[in-house]
Amino acid sequence: MVDPLIDDTDASGAPATVRFEVSGSRPDDAVRDLNGLYGGDDWVARPTDGAFDYRYTALGDTEVTIRRAQFHGSLHGTVPPGGDYVVAWIGAGSAEVERLGERYPLPLETPLLLPPDHAYTFWTADHDHRLVHLDRGFVGRVAAARLDAVEQPLRFDDRRVPDADAARRWQGVLTALARSLRVGGPESTAWHSAKTLAAEVFLDAFPPRPDDLPAVLGHPRNGRLRAAVQYIHDHAAEPVTVAELSEASGLSVRSVQESFRRVFDVSPLTYLRHVRLDRVRAELLELDPQLGAVGDVARRWGFAHLGRFSASYAERFGEYPKQTLRR
Question: Helix and strand tally (H, E) in the chain?
Fold first, then answer.
């Protein structure tokens, strides 16, 4: 069964109401319904003990929705990066996530941030999950107001496990969101207060830091490219291939190359070289000229041929690395 997904946004530009339910008793229907919500790949659903059923509900607006996923069976699939921030609270069953080659279980009754900037694969069985979807732009505006700062993309550590106090506060958020929907619905003042509280507690539970990535990657269209760029920044000192960027972003190899050309007008590996040169320069500016060795720094950031490195450095910064070191 599928109910209407999103009501039309009103003329004032207020967030559109989100209200839907999908449910059924066939694995193929579960894959169709749930995969369709997340735009994922290779989803598979199976019975776990001969029986199978699922129910997924959502209510809120396009800035925040509170959702519940109940599943008698197993579900496995891949989710692309770049959507909402999603905080999961697993009340029953089991769940595991793998991203960037690391696979780990998700603990019960703990607020957990699902990977927002990398494609990830998940495995669940007989689960009951409460999910809060927070629009990136909405969280950014709340963060800007709290920090008295200009809005900018934010980065979050999805491997962070909040402490007991943060878990209690998140339980309070779940209660406040549900109560405000029962009392007044998504158009009420109570809902507005509850969803603002949700964003504030989210920012406390997963403390953000300003994103050092190019601002253009904050555009929803560039969500998958953002994951590839983030991978480069996280692994700049390591050998990086376009195939790895494809896996991290959920894009094909060709799409990775085309996206870098479209947004940055360079190839992925040229972008990687620029990041490495920037890291070298930052280190050279901090080194003591009497103790520092340009070659050691260059090799640490993946430059094996020092002659080509020096020429690339001079082309990018208008001076040779030894000149930078002597500043």
Answer: 11, 11
pLDDT over threshold 90, residue 282: no
Q: Identify the bridge partners of residue 131 per DSSP, sorted by sequence position.
A: 67, 88
Residues 116 and 84: their CA atoms lie apart, in Å, by 7
For residue 212, report the phi and psi dihedrals to the nearest 5 degrees. Answer: -95, 10
| Phi, psi angles (nearest 5°) of residue 39 | 65, 35
- Asked if 197 and 176 touch (Cβ cutoff 8 Å), the reply is yes
Which helix (H) or strand (E) element contains residue 118? none
Tokens 């946004």 label which residue? 9
Q: Is 121 exposed, middle or buried (0-12, 13-18, 19+ CB in 10 A)?
A: middle
DSSP string, 133-145: EE-HHHHHHHHHH
What does the pLDDT average to over 43-51? Answer: 91
* Count of alpha carbons within 13 angstroms of residue 199, beta-carbon side: 22
**Cα(18)–Cα(11) distance, integer angstroms:** 16
SS3 149: coil
By the 8 A CB rule, do 127 and 48 touch? Answer: no
Contact 116, 81 (CB under 8 A): yes
CB 7 within 8 A of CB 19: yes
The tokens for 74 are: 């197993």
Whether the per-residue pLDDT at 6 is higher than 50: the answer is: no
Tokens of 165: 């106090």
Can you give the pLDDT at residue 12? 55
Among 81, 110, 83, 115, residue whose Cα is nearest residue 98: 115
pLDDT at residue 172 greater than cutoff 80: yes
DSSP secondary structure string for all residues of 26-37: -HHHHHHHHHHH
